[in-house]
Input
Amino acid sequence: MSDQPNVVVTGLGTTSPLGGDVPTSWAAALAGKSGVRTLEQDWVSQYELPVTFAGQLAVPAEEILSRPETRRMDPSAQFAMIAAREAWADAGSPELPGERIGAVIASGIGGVITLVNAWDTIRDKGVRRVLPLTVPMLMPNSPAAYVSIEVGAKAGAHTPVSACASGAEAIGYGLEMIRTGRADVVVAGGTEAAIHPLPIASFAKMQALSTRNDDPAGASRPYDVNRDGFVLGEGAGVIVLEREDHAIARGARIYARVAGLGMTSDAYDVAPPDPTGAGQERAFRLALANAGVSAADVVHVNAHATSTPAGDGVEAKAMRRALGDDADHVTVSATKSMTGHLLGGAGALESIFTIMAIVDRQAPPTINVSDPEPDLPIDLVRDSPRALRDGDIAAVNNGFGFGGHNATLVFTNA
Amino acid sequence: MAHSEEDILAGLAEIVNDETGLPADAVQKDKSFTDDLDIDSLSMMTIVTLAEEKFEVRIPDEEVKNLNTVGDAVSFIAQAQA
Output
């Protein structure tokens, strides 16, 4: 891709079940901590929900934002704003014309809490009690709009929606904005705030959620033979992408390079992935080719691995086929074992973990895997972090979503 | 039970503080919602909607444009609940 500019990462931000910022969340991930705990909201017992736990934010948004901000933004926008502010400050608040700044913030479900609460208001109190900001709060592009306002991004504000691939797709979209010359800096990531009876009941009815109510911290167990579904999480991840020469010229700290992107779709089913994993494998191969790296350069994958019985095995086999025998020297981590599944925020938070793995040369652990799948065709990092080698390396983040959306990102050391 | 004008002013100030972050004591009867308190039209509709519920009155949408100052709103609510 010699005719396109290199794109680097100069800022990171998150609010997650493991911490209110990147340093705290990454330290907790390396330490193998779980951010999953029992829900204490009244509605859990009121509706007799079949699942009583989730990966809730470690630091509630209302402890960070002002009261007007929490009243005017859906929680999905609140989380994105917290992550974007951290990322922007971490990047040194770059000064450039707004026409050269983009904002791409994805969401899987959008402002579902606002939507359902507004309906409750109509039903209980009548239409006159509906607040005028209801639509701007519930629309899925609301987080992108707020973040664009926050950083003055005028090159475009976008919201990829592809279920649990959304966050990874947003970073890919940001990469393309810079490669094609639309922007020099893009604030990109994903957010989700769906811990509410409606999504929990719906996912549970699909039998997609773990029902290990007596052991929340042990419930998300990717690749373990006793995994029984994913654990719902919430939060946001945002990274600042920047044209490499722009970052160098202003003396910015560079974490890593965003080297490539591969996106495919299964055209198979609206929920589960194609069991052959062909679309996932193709996304992986396309991403490596797009990045100009070979399987031998890859040392780490932050897998999508949600802890569902069907999904994890498909991904493991697809990765193996894409990497070939080079898979033997690739450390694979499933950090959803600790964070739960942030849906539209997952690909962004896990990209941050992938980037930090390159920076610190450490692959984070996968917790709760007491009894791994036999004949697992990948080298899963369990229990404690694994060192990554020195020199030039590449690391990969996978993000897959209901509907057959596959997005694979490749990061390299800068 | 009818609210006094003082109660209504204090209640409005609380709503405005929640919505905009303006200190409650900045919300005085002679202040213009738009010129002094910098409240845009959507925020004004939010404040009106919350005030309807708080004071159990109806403030017709077409009346909102006549509520230029905080004092206008206090008077309207006081009469509407009578």
Summary: The domain at 5-80 of chain B is CATH 1.10.1200.10 (Non-ribosomal Peptide Synthetase Peptidyl Carrier Protein; Chain A). Chain B has a mean pLDDT of 95. DSSP finds three helices and no strands in chain B. Residues 5-20 of chain B form the longest helix (16 residues).
